[in-house]
């Protein structure tokens, strides 16, 4: 019983050190980003480029009868006159662009031809939650409507616009599935030997109209956002993922401590010879041993969290040491980055 108590106490200490209460700093947009250029070229990594020559740039939203981004892509020599025959990006995307139903309203500008599946963009909340709680854009509190609409528009561009796929970082001319740890053809030994890491969902340097980026900054300047890595969305998501894991472990630990208190009461009654509530030695062992196993699980999980926060995830090393291609029934893609 004493070992059980010590185990719970030590788990609480380790969990605290893992950073249950420490989250990324939240600041106003105008405290994180200098201007629209800084916002567009920092928040999404290298996905977008701020372009002052707007004749050679794309928009993230439109009200035209046809998608103006397609004409831009053709003028830049990125797309043949025949238009799009496939969707370059692959995550929740369709294989080829297609018209959508009358229920397609959240990303309605792309109704005539979209790469997104209707089920993945049906509502704003589905866009917000699509990539897990760590990628919610409102982790610093509810956003103003004028600010949030820009996040919805960016999501619709990424999910639905066939032209976004023209800026896939690892396009078909260079993509090697043996270097993609989310592909069924992934070969860990080959990837390690050639020092290659690829995916089919990452964008790179899509030029966005400067006026659009500036409008985004103006709309959001008083709202709050995660300030980690100067406002990099994906650095923020990585921190939130660790924070959420730690919070879940804390809840589990609290539940175990409640059960421990009940067990202590039962043991005390047994030691005092009270018939009511007393348990045999076998019954007590049957309760304590599984609890100790649970505590061991807490220790292991806490260690994983601490290693992730230090940038040394345990399973990355295990993955590096795998021999041969990874298995799986179908292709699975990693968390979206840009």
Automatic annotation (TrEMBL):
Pfam families: Folate_rec. Residues 316-338 are annotated as: Disordered. One of its GO terms (molecular function) is signaling receptor activity. One of its GO terms (cellular component) is external side of plasma membrane. InterPro entries: Folate_rcpt, Folate_rcpt-like. Belongs to the folate receptor family. This is Folate receptor-like domain-containing protein.
